[in-house]
Design a protein that fits this description.
Helix content is 30%, strand content 15%. By secondary structure, the chain is α/β, with parallel strands linked by helices. The chain has one domain: 3-Layer(aba) Sandwich (Alkaline Phosphatase, subunit A). A hairpin with a 2-residue loop joins β10 and β11. The longest helix is centred in the middle third of the chain and has 28 residues. It is globular. The N terminus and C terminus are likely disordered.
């Protein structure tokens, strides 16, 4: 007899399958059915890419992907923490529903992922991750994947990840596939390989950062020994190195003659604060530098080259968008994400009345609504000590706090956020934090500043 969790999951999968506007649930994949390649970038803020307006950072391959497809200009990360953000990408759910609030909580077996849905439709599924805390035992993102390439060390470079991922992708390309690759390089500490370590000159714009005990586990940050003029060029170098490796991945699609039939989706899990709001080289808080992330899609013949959409979107939209591109439709009542396919022909399309973001452990909540962004700490949090009201895409630096100038709006948005989070968490999947980590994963999370 199946375990109760597996019975529940089987029922859930069946209910999701019934939502597809497609007949023949058990058919094998047609040879001409499109492929899906999902590329997730760790710790890449949107405004450090050329296609998002940065004139300095060299990202020719990502920029070309955007030029050949669609660039979603105002995309919001569901969280500023890696595993929670990825859980949202794969399920189309906000944190309060999928229940993954940190890098130690595996996704519940009851969750239904994009990989599971597509494998059920006959797709070959392949994944490769570049950080140890995304491994199967710790994250449970293996759900739905035929093959899952784990990360044995703390982290891998994009070049190291590509070595075996590209070989595996070549093997599965004989029939329709869903492949996901995660690249970790821009995450701190920033150490791009040559020549990217010296690609950008050391600046003269900053003083060394003040010592901050609360920043993270870096002794240099605690003691105020970090100079932004030296660190920011390294972060830029990481992004340019990553772009080079993405170029190798995209070239494989050309070599295999499958570029024209492959939907490519590129998204970052979250961004990174360089010096803004006195947050130095980490992804604390829910300010634009952390929550505004790139989302790019290319699908020849389906997406007009150079398309741009300025409406509010969220990374939870990836799952329903991919499914609609493939000819399957899901009921909006089942997930938080909305398909962005209509946005490609209708610039006035509004996929969301509101978007929710949450920080690790739920210590900060955020609400995007009607051009405004309200954020509020739920507990003692050093990066956001009080609530704020911003116009995030008009005032990108979020320099003007409007909570006193627009008190009524602030009250409404606070009440909405409080009520939404309270009700959503009552329906959360049973994701349970793992307290007993294996030694290597515990050491990895400690070295990255995630646990003490």
């Amino acid at each position: 007899m199946l375990h109760p969790k597996l019975l529940l999951k089987s029922a859930t999968l069946m209910s999701v399958a019934l939502l597809f506007c497609f007949s023949g649930c058990e058919r094998r994949q047609d040879p001409g059915t499109p492929n899906v390649l999902l590329i997730t970038l760790d710790t890449v803020r949107a405004d450090y890419l050329g296609c998002y307006g940065n004139p300095e950072v060299l990202t020719p391959n990502i920029d070309r992907l955007a030029a050949e497809g669609a660039n979603f200009l105002n995309n919001v990360a569901p969280s500023q923490c890696t595993n929670p953000a990825h859980a949202s990408i794969f399920t189309g759910l906000y944190l309060a529903f999928h229940g993954v609030y940190d890098n130690q909580t595996p996704l519940a077996e009851e969750a239904v992922t994009l990989a599971e849905i597509l494998r059920q439709r006959g797709y070959r599924t392949l994944a490769g991750v570049s950080a140890r805390h995304l491994n199967t035992e710790n994250a449970n993102f293996t759900q739905g994947f035929d093959e899952f390439l784990e990360c044995e060390p703390v982290e891998m470079t994009a070049g190291e990840r590509n070595r075996d991922f590209l070989k595996k992708l070549r093997k599965v390309s004989g029939r329709s596939f869903f492949a996901w690759v995660h690249y970790y390089d821009p995450h701190g500490d920033y150490a791009p390989p040559a020549p990217y370590d010296t690609l950008y000159p050391v600046g003269e714009n900053y003083k060394p950062i003040p010592g901050k005990e609360v920043m993270d586990l870096s002794e240099d940050k605690k003691n105020g020994l970090v100079d932004p003029d030296e660190i920011i060029p390294l972060y830029k170098g990481e992004i340019s190195y990553l772009d080079h490796q993405i170029g190798a991945l995209l070239k494989l699609l050309v070599d295999l003659k499958i570029e024209e039939q492959t939907l490519v989706i590129l998204v970052a899990d979250h961004g990174e604060s360089m010096t803004e709001k006195e947050i130095y080289f980490c992804h604390a808080g829910l300010y634009n530098q952390v929550t505004h992330v790139p989302l790019i899609m290319r699908f020849p013949g389906k997406i007009s080259p150079g398309s741009e959409f300025a409406g509010l979107t969220s990374s939870v939209d990836i799952l329903p968008t991919a499914l609609e591109f493939l000819g399957y439709k899901m009921s909006h009542s089942r997930i938080d994400g909305r398909s962005l396919v209509p946005a490609l022909t209708d610039p006035d399309y509004q996929p969301h009345e509101f978007v929710i973001v949450e920080a690790v452990d739920g210590i900060i909540g955020g609400l995007y609504q009607a051009g405004y962004k309200y954020i509020k700490p739920y507990g003692d949090e050093w990066s956001v000590t009080e609530d704020h009201l911003f116009r995030p895409f008009l005032d990108y630096a979020e320099a003007e706090d409007l909570k006193y100038a627009e008190e009524e709006r602030t009250r409404r948005m606070e009440s909405f956020l409080d009520s939404w989070l309270e009700e959503a968490k009552k329906k959360s999947l049973p994701s349970i934090r793992r307290e007993n980590l294996d030694k290597k994963t515990e050491e990895a999370l400690k070295s990255l500043g995630y646990i003490k």
